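Two proteins, back to back. First:
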Amino acid sequence: MIRLESSGSASHLEPEADYERRPDGSGGCEDPCITFIEPLQRYAMTYTAYSPRGPRIALAISEDLFHWERMGLAIFMPYEGVDFNDVNNKDALWSMRSATNIITSAILIHTRG
C-alpha cells in the first residue's frame, strides 16, 4: 500500500517499491495526478516514480484517497519502432476513456496474479 501523509497543507507519497528507489538511496514519488473513475468507483493516480532507470510513470488506485494500492509502472506499446518504456518519462496525458481502460486492465491483471 502507498502511504499518504499530511505535511501541513501538502500531501506526499513515500517511496517504498523498488521502482521508486535508486541504489544510492535517492528516488521518489512526485507529481501525482488523481481522478475518479466512475465505472470502477475508485480513484486512480498517476505519479512520477524516480527509479534506477530514471523517471517513469507509475499507477495506483484507492477507494478513499488515503489508502493506495500500487499497480506498478505504466507499460507502453512501441510506436513506429520506438520503445517508450526505455525513455525517461515523467509526464502523461490521459483521456478519461484511456484512463478507465488502462486502470481496469491493470486491476484485472493485478488481481488475477
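And the second protein:
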Amino acid sequence: MRILQKLFGITDKKFLNAFSQAGTIGLHMVSGIAVGAVVGYLLDRWLDTRPWLTVIFLVVGIVAGFKNVYVDSRRLIAAQQREEEEEDRRKREQTQGGQERTQQGYVRKDAEKGPPED
C-alpha cells in the first residue's frame, strides 16, 4: 500500500484496502489454475499420460481458483457489513447523545425561568 501512496499520492485508507483485497482475490484465482496446470503437466511427464492429467488437474485448478474467489468474496462482504454496522451504531450513539444533551439543556433553561407567568 505504501507503494501506491508514494507513486500515485493516494492516501484514502479504504480505497487502498479495497485495492489490495481485489489484488489478493485475483492472485488466488490465478494461483489455483497455475498450480493445477503445473501439477498435471509434471504428473503427465512422469507417468507418460499426456495430456490427460494436465487437463484433469487444470480443471481442478480452475475449480479451486473459483472456490478461492468465492471464499475471499464472502469474507470481504462480511467485513464490509461489520464496518457498516459499526458505523451505523456510532452514528446512532452520537445522535442519541446529542439529543440527550439538548433535552437536558432545555430542562435546565426551563427550570431557571421558573413557573410560567400568566
